[in-house]
Amino acid sequence: MSSKFGRLAEYPRVPLSVVPTVIEPAPKLSAELGLNLSIKRDDLTGLAFGGNKTRQLEFYFGAAQAEGADTIVITGAVQSNYVRVAAAAAARLGMDIHVQSEERVPDVDATYCQSGNVLLGDLLGVHRHAYPVGEDEAGADKAVQAIADNLRDNGRRPYVIPLAPGHQPTGALGYVITAGEIVAQLQSSGASIDTIVLGSGSGFTHAGLLFGLRALEQETVVHGICVRRNAEAQAARIAR
Ligand SMILES: Cc1ncc(COP(=O)(O)O)c(C=O)c1O
C-alpha cells in the first residue's frame, strides 16, 4: 500500500474481495460512443455477485470484528446490492445480520419485494425489519440505531453500518486503496486515462477514489452519476 495513504494500513480490515479486478477495454462500445472506454471490472470483486460494496465492507467488518461485535445491522433499499453483499460477508464470517429494508421505490409489484437481492438475502439468513416511510435518509439512520439498541438490550453485540452523512466514511477507505490499484495497473500496462465515470449513492466509492487519486498526485477527473439526489447536493456530500 502506498505510503502516501498515511495511516490507512492501521485500520482493521477483513479481506473479502477478489482483487485486483481487471481493467478491460470495451472496443465495440468505444467505437459506438466515439471515445476510448475501458471498464474496471468491480462487478467481479466476489461475495454473492460482488460489486463496489465488497471493497467497502472489508473495513466495516474489520471494525466490527475489532470491537468484538457478533451482529451486523445495516439499512438500505429493498433491492440493495450493499445489503446483499453484507449478508454474504456476515454468513462467511459467522455473524448474524439484521437488515432494515427501506421502501424507497414507489409503485412496486410483488416481484420487487421478493426476488433478486431479497431472495438472496433470505437464503443468506438475514433478519429483516421494514422501514415503510419512503425516501428518508435521516429517519432511516435513526431507526437503524434503534434496532441496534434493542439488540444490545437483548444481550447481542451489534455493529451498525451507516450510510447517512455524519458518520465516519469508513467504506470510502476501500476505494482509497483502489485508487492505488488503478494507478499501479495503468503504470504496468502503459495505458492512461483522463476520466473515471461511476455511480454515486452514499458517495463512498466516489469520495474514496477521488481522495486516493489526489493523494497519489493524479489529476484524473472522477465523474459521479448520482442515483439518489441532485448534483449540487451530491457534490457537497462528496466534498464533506
Ligand atoms: C452498482 C452500484 N454502483 C455504485 C453505487 C454507488 O456506490 P456508493 O454508495 O459507494 O456511492 C451503488 C449503490 O448505490 C451500486 O449499487
How does this model look, in words?
There is one protein chain. This protein is α/β, with parallel strands linked by helices. It has two domains: 3-43 and 169-239, Rossmann fold (3-Layer(aba) Sandwich); 53-161, Rossmann fold (3-Layer(aba) Sandwich), CATH 3.40.50.1100. α8 (204-215) links the parallel β7 (195-200) and β8. The protein is 42% helix and 17% strand. The chain starts with 22 loop residues before the first strand and ends with a helix. It has helices at 27-33, 53-66, 81-93, 110-114, 116-123, 137-153, 173-189, 204-215, 231-239; strands at 23-25, 38-40, 71-77, 96-102, 127-131, 158-161, 195-200, 221-226. The strands form three sheets. It has a four-stranded parallel β-sheet, sandwiched between helices. It has a two-stranded antiparallel sheet with strand order 1-2. The chain has nine helices and eight strands. The chain is globular. Bound molecules: pyridoxal-5'-phosphate. Pyridoxal-5'-phosphate binds at residues 51-52, 81, 199-206, 227.
